[in-house]
Design goal:
This protein is of the alpha/beta class. It folds into two domains: 32-58 and 82-223, 3-Layer(aba) Sandwich (Rossmann fold), CATH 3.40.50.300; 233-259 and 284-321, no CATH class. Helices cover 31% and strands 24% of the residues. The chain has helices at residues 48-56, 82-91, 110-121, 126-139, 145-148, 158-170, 188-205, 216-222, 240-245, 250-257, and strands at 6-17, 20-32, 37-41, 63-72, 75-76, 93-97, 176-180, 208-212, 225-230, 233-239, 306-309, 312-315. It has an eight-stranded mixed beta sheet, sandwiched between helices. The mean pLDDT is 92. Bound molecules: adenosine-5'-diphosphate, iron/sulfur cluster (SF4) and magnesium ion. Magnesium ion (MG) binds at residues 48-49, 180-181.
Length: 321
């Protein structure tokens, strides 16, 4: 394969019915290369999950990809038939998200669920799959994996469930893992453990990761590159270190000011004043204008230009003569 493992070009996702469709994701470009970890950040409602779900062919009812391309390993996913998409989803792309209970069947022991997946997607015999489950549970850091495999999801702690869901997602040795806010529901200590586990297994198994989070510290700790989304668009992207050290987009700069203080300082956490635009509202210029502390007259009227310097992209009028 030449080119990125995942290549999203000009992705638009709309909600609606019949003749009235309104775009909520509005022209996203994203690349994930083999073995790379790419972060996708932005406030709630910016379109991160819909972007991820479109890759999995799992958009909610009433949503569709209205234009754009999603290439996985060179194959177009937009418009792919359900059967082919199901195969790809189980085998080549795994996904974990915030709520493991919605992914795990409450009535089937967790080990059996992974066995079933291995038998379907990796065509393993029962005996081989059962042995592999114990290895996988061990890999994700579960003690006494053979016993835990017999447990039901509700018998496990939140962190443990997240580990099981990860084992399930990587069981078929996918090339890409999509992690959508995988630790948001966990307390800080467990969060760090689960992130450590994720980082270790993606290195061990050589899996590329699209890591979605609103936690910029987590993104900085495990990602190679990051894309920042606002109101359905990527407004800035680049390698993690230069981007976090010297963010170019005013939205990224304001987001970074809202990171919780690690020095234990008290007081309310700062937030960006104002709210993102309403769902589907039409914006001729930059959607961040009403909240931007350095906006100019042209910002609300004209779409800002995209500028790229040494692989660091920013979509903004600031500094443009
Ligand atoms: N099921 C849905 N029905 C209608 N609108 C939705 C639905 N899911 C998401 N949206 C709209 O799409 C926008 C982006 O959603 P989402 O991708 O879930 O954001 P994020 O993951 O960044 O928080 C939301 O702000 C909302 O307006
Ligand atoms: S284009 Fe204008 S409003 Fe938008 S982020 Fe840049 S300066 Fe702010
Ligand atoms: Mg989301």
């Amino acid at each position: 394969m030449s080119g990125p493992l995942l290549q999203i070009d000009g992705l638009h996702i709309a909600f609606g019915s019949r003749s009235v469709w309104r775009d909520v994701v509005r022209g996203v470009d994203l690349r994930v290369s083999a073995g790379e970890v790419v972060g996708l950040v932005g406030e709630s409602g910016s379109g991160k999950s819909l972007t991820a779900l479109s890759v999995m062919g799992l958009l909610p009812l009433g949503a569709k990809v209205s234009s754009g391309r999603i290439l996985f390993d060179g194959t177009e996913l937009v418009g792919m038939r359900d059967g082919a998409m199901n195969k790809l989803r189980g085998r080549d792309i795994g996904m974990i998200f915030q709520d493991p209970l919605s992914a795990l069947n409450p009535a089937i022991p967790v080990g059996k669920q992974i066995v079933d997946s291995l038998r379907t997607h990796a065509s393993m015999t029962r005996r081989a799959a059962e042995a592999r489950v114990v290895e996988l549970l061990d890999l994700v850091g579960i003690n006494q994996p053979a016993e835990r495999a017999r447990a039901y999801a509700h018998e496990l702690s939140g962190g443990m469930r997240q580990r099981v869901m990860t084992a399930l997602a990587v069981s078929s040795n996918p090339k890409l893992l999509i992690a959508d806010e995988p630790t948001t529901a966990l307390d800080v200590t467990v969060q760090a453990q689960v992130i450590g586990m994720l980082d270790r297994i993606r290195r061990d198994l050589g899996i590329a990761v699209l890591f979605i989070s609103h936690n910029l510290d987590l993104v900085a700790s495990i990602c190679d590159r990051v894309s920042v989304m606002y109101a359905g668009r990527v407004v800035e992207s680049g390698a993690v270190e230069p981007l976090f050290d010297a963010p170019r987009h005013p939205y990224t700069r304001q987001l970074l000011r809202c990171v919780p203080r690690l020095d234990g300082g008290t007081g309310p956490m700062p937030t960006i004043p104002g709210l993102p635009p309403r769902f589907g509202s039409v914006l001729p210029g930059c959607a961040f204008t009403p909240r931007c502390v350095v906006s100019q007259a042209r910002c609300s009227a004209q779409a800002p230009p995209m500028r790229r310097e040494s692989g660091h992209l920013s979509v903004c009028w600031e500094g443009v003569p």
